[in-house]
Amino acid sequence: MKNIAIIEDEEEALARIRGYLERFSSESGESFRIVVYGNTIDFLEKYKPNYDIVFMDIKLPNMDGMEAAKKLRALDRFVALVFVTNMKQFAVKGYEVDALDFIVKPVKYPDFVLKLQRVLARHEWRQ
Asked: Which of 26, 35, 47, 97 could potentially form a cystine with 69 if both were Cys, beta carbons 3.0 to 4.6 Å apart?
């Protein structure tokens, strides 16, 4: 079972990502434990390095995802980080925090699957 954190404040985007994870799980047999955070502050305050994958929006209240990713890397260098956002201009900055990938909203299922498979392949390599 893979532990996944989703940091997303938009209900529609959150429902889509969660739904895609559930669909992928039923199609592939991969199981996920999903924990959702509506903002980066709650996520970072409660963070323990037991997540395999973090899906993080960039445009979030209180602290944006890019700043949160820098703080996350201070706590956990190894977790697979995937940004999910409509702000394409931040794609290059994702490399500064060792983001594995970048998904542009609105997320389409085939694109999501390709990115998730890449993340899972990396995770299997790490173990």
From this structure: 97
**pLDDT tens-digit map of 6-34:** 999 999 999 999 999 999 999 999 999 99
- Could you tell me which residues are beta bridge partners of residue 3? 33
Q: Which residue has the tokens 């392949």?
A: 121
Place of tokens 């429902």: 15
DSSP state of 90: G
DSSP assignment letter at 104: E
Specify the pTM.
Answer: 0.89
Buried b (16+ CB within 10 A) or exposed e, 36-71: ebbbbeebbeebeeebbbbbbbbebeeebbbebbee
Cα–Cα distance, 60 to 51 (Å, whole number): 20
Give dist(CA 53, CA 103) in Å, integer: 14
Residue length of the chain: 127
CB 7 within 8 A of CB 54: yes
